[in-house]
């Protein structure tokens, strides 16, 4: 039976064993995969949050605008939504009334949530809302009031509930995507590092025992 030569000894013990990182498995490419998953998750979260938040708080398209003390006629083709009353720069829902297609006059109610936007040098504030239940021609009439320049009406969906859903969606983007990325990316990084470390220890043990390589002696 042949006996292997003992490892080469230096003046202070055995020579250090070098392990080329390229030999270790799994390959280092998995570090890149794990890092890319994390980066993509955080980028997706940022883009999703910004887009969702902008869509939620942006000023809606106006159906009609009227200067204070004037009235304006506009047509509604769809139904079952909340018509929001905006004032610039501020105002009160009691200053305007809405004449319905059947000729009755109604007042706006409290919208249930606060929303104001500054755009194009103008400040618009949501001051009232009213449900629209029939299509047809509507008339917006607003009283003149010092400090109020313009009133406008816009489709605000289902009002406060839709606004709350939009905010919730924004925060889900901000939290959900990073958590999902960490749930996938971190295990990839941890498992890769652990397995490569184990593989390195195994290779070092083998090379201490059999420094010249080759199969185990018979």
Written description of the protein model:
- By secondary structure, the chain is α+β, with helices and mostly antiparallel strands.
- It folds into two domains: 18-54 and 167-208; 61-155, Jelly Rolls, CATH 2.60.120.
- It has two helices and eleven strands.
- It has a five-stranded antiparallel β-sheet, with no helix packed on it. The chain has a four-stranded antiparallel β-sheet with strand order 4-10-6-7, with no helix packed on it.
- The longest helix has 50 residues, at 160-209.
- 18% of the residues are buried.
Helix and strand topology:
Blueprint: E1 9-10, E2 13-14, H1 29-57, E3 62-67, E4 71-76, E5 81-88, E6 96-99, E7 105-107, E8 116-119, E9 122-132, E10 136-142, E11 150-155, H2 160-209
Antiparallel strand pairs: 1-2, 3-11, 4-10, 5-9, 5-11, 6-7, 6-10, 8-9
Number of helices: 2
- Would you count the extended β strands for me? 11
The strand order across the widest sheet is: 3-11-5-9-8
**Which structural class best describes the helix and strand composition?**
alpha+beta
- Tell me the helix content: 25-40%
Domain tally: 2
* Major sheet details: 5 strands, antiparallel
Strand/helix succession: EEHEEEEEEEEEH
Query: What spatial form do the alpha-carbon principal axes imply?
Result: rod-shaped
Average predicted local confidence, pLDDT:
85
N-C termini distance: 7 Å
Q: Name the beta content range.
A: 25-35%
Reported CATH architecture of the largest domain: Sandwich
CATH class of the largest domain: Mainly Beta
Instruction: Flag low-confidence runs.
Output: none
Q: What's the alpha carbon Rg, rounded to whole Å?
A: 35 Å
Indicate the CATH topology of the largest domain.
Jelly Rolls
């Amino acid at each position: 039976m042949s006996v292997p030569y003992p490892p080469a000894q230096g003046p202070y013990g055995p020579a250090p064993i070098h392990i080329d990182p390229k030999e270790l498995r799994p390959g280092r490419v998995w570090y890149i995969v794990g890092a890319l998953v994390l980066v993509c998750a955080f980028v997706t979260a940022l883009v999703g949050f910004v887009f969702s938040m902008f869509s939620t708080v942006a000023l809606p398209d106006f159906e009609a605008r009227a200067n204070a003390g004037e009235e304006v006629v506009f047509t509604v083709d769809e139904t079952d939504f909340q018509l929001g009353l905006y004032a610039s720069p501020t105002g009160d829902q009691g200053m305007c009334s809405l004449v319905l297609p059947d000729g009755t006059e109604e007042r706006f109610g409290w919208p249930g949530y606060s929303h104001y936007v500054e755009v194009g040098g103008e400040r618009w504030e949501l001051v009232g809302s009213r449900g629209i239940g029939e299509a047809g021609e509507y008339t917006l009439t607003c009283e003149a009031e010092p400090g109020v320049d313009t009133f406008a009406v816009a489709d605000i969906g289902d009002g406060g509930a839709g606004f709350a859903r939009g905010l919730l969606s924004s925060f889900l983007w901000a939290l959900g995507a990073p958590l999902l990325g960490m749930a996938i990316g971190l295990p990839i990084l941890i498992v890769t590092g652990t397995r490569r470390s184990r593989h390195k220890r195994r290779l070092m043990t083998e090379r201490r025992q059999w420094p010249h390589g080759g199969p185990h002696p018979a």
